[in-house]
Write a structure and sequence with these properties.
37% of the residues lie in helices and 14% in strands. By secondary structure, it is an alpha/beta fold. Helix 1 (23-33) packs across helix 11 (296-313), helix 3 packs parallel to helix 6 and helix 10 (263-273) packs parallel to helix 11. The termini are close together. The mean pLDDT is 97.
Length: 320
């Protein structure tokens, strides 16, 4: 059985709202309040961040702090790669969602010949590019980096010079070229989409499961469907953004959206998904305690995180 190793990524330079870098510590506080020994059970490593760049102001308006995002993707990629190389399971607790691309790159670097499926549980599709972004915030771009998509058909911005040089470098982190095919992505609970993202979902026929489906069919059935959609993939990575949870609960996140999952639905879904032995990494992102008075978001997130870790730890040992 692969041992879980916690990778802490306290980075928030890809977010539009400040505070996501504090999410890891907020979940540790939640674990103490809930009298859990989770953070003593597993080894953990912290990836050094470059949040100090935030004090300099954003120089690239269509890809804010892209220079720092590139550094973070490379650092996360290397940490995930080494964790897999050491035969451990990368269990990533991160700030903003942009660094999920570093996780994907690390998985791909460790398994260059494997076809990687991605389960993206999130209110947002995160497949914008510097050419299409309405905000310039790079936590809306990790899946465009992973698929190597520019989406020039929907171009509304005209990024130039250094921005584009960094963007091209980003697409080649870990191993050159795309890490994931669009048809190997499954979106769950995505409900806040812009036109360029809708265009890509339709163009590539990206798998899409709505919140209503989860409520109607239940998390266990949805998990079965998600895994069936990726039955041709060798490995699966699950990225869980807490804003997939309904905004009445997920106040402590930068971009809450109504009509989301309940905490119980999110927990059951993640617990069920990670039972599949192809799931090789799990990640939770975007807890922001500065937006939350009672640390409720971190407590809900920790509850999901701990249940998911237990489900991974109880997977049967695979024959070598």
């Amino acid at each position: 059985m692969k041992e879980i190793k916690i990778i802490e990524v306290k980075s928030e330079i890809g977010a539009g709202t400040r505070g996501a870098s504090l999410g890891v510590e907020a979940m540790k506080i939640a674990s103490l309040d809930l009298k859990s020994d989770f953070f003593r059970t597993y080894d953990s490593v912290e990836v050094e961040n470059v949040n100090e760049l935030l004090f300099d102001g954003a120089k690239h308006s269509y890809a804010k702090f892209i220079d720092g995002v590139l550094i973070m993707e490379e650092r996360v990629c290397l940490e995930v790669y080494e964790t897999i190389w050491d035969d451990n399971f990368p269990f990533v607790i991160a700030g903003d969602h942009s660094t999920a691309y570093g996780t994907i790159s690390g998985i791909k670097k460790a398994n260059p010949g494997a076809r990687l499926g991605v389960v993206w549980i999130d209110a947002h599709a995160d497949i914008h590019t510097p050419y299409t972004t309405p905000s310039g915030n790079m936590h809306g771009m990790p899946l465009a980096m992973a698929t190597g998509i520019d989406n020039l058909e929907c171009k509304v911005n005209d990024p130039k010079g250094e921005t584009l040089e960094y963007w091209e470098q980003l697409k080649n982190v870990g191993v050159p070229g795309a890490k994931v095919y669009p048809e190997d992505i499954v979106y769950v609970a995505v409900r806040d989409l812009e036109k360029p993202e809708n265009y890509l979902i339709n163009k590539h026929n990206i798998n899409f499961i709505e919140t209503e489906d989860v409520k109607k069919l239940g998390s266990v059935e949805i998990a079965k469907r998600v895994l069936a959609m990726l039955d041709h993939c060798d490995l699966i990575y699950i990225s869980f953004d807490v804003d997939s949870i309904d905004s009445r609960v997920s106040t402590g996140t930068g971009t809450p959206v109504p009509n989301g999952l309940t905490v119980d639905e999110a927990k059951a879904l993640n617990v069920e998904l990670v039972k599949d032995p192809r799931v090789c990494s799990w990640e939770i992102v975007e807890v922001n305690p500065t937006l939350d008075t009672e640390n409720r978001m971190a407590e809900s997130a920790f509850e999901i995180l701990e249940a998911t870790a237990k489900s991974i730890a109880s997977r049967p040992v695979m024959a070598e």
